[in-house]
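Encode chain A's predicted structure.
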Amino acid sequence: MLLPFFQEELLEAGCDEAGRGCLAGPVFAAAVILPRNFHHPLLNDSKQLNYAQRKQLRTEIETQALAFSVAEVGHEEIDRINILQASFLAMHRALDSLKARPELILVDGNRFKQYQDLPHQCIVKGDGKYFSIAAASILAKTYRDDFMEQIAAEFPQYDWASNKGYPTQKHREAVLVHGFSPYHRRSFKVTDPQLTLFQ
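Encoded structure for chain A:
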């Protein structure tokens, strides 16, 4: 059962990212400020929802949120500063673009880089605990999926339309056979112990 708010006094923005574990494409992050009366029976961690449910919720969130923003950090910048710092940067960029200034930031996970002078609260598995983080997880996931679907046609051999850049066996094997695309993160390890055939 998700909770609507972490506390009652401060204006909260939920933050989450999508694409941290991918071999290709940007990492996306979203920041969402929901009104006090927001409720939707389907709202949950984006990983618990199907494609149609995420799309439906994205429309509801964007229509009803007091403020929302989605930002990205590209694969080249990820290689330059590492994926953890890129995830923080994407969240900071999303917060930068909010039309309203939050008073407290709720972050999915256990680490975050201080944003300006605002207090923050890290919440492990927060996307399954609080409305605003769940909403942010849905926006980050759907915007990133849209991006990967757009570039999938350029490089069909990697099956991004299905795997969205995550390291499925088919995706890993395609990289080992065809090499990197211009969208791949060069700092990520493609081989893994499950692919003994290629080692």
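The two ends are 45 Å apart (CA to CA).
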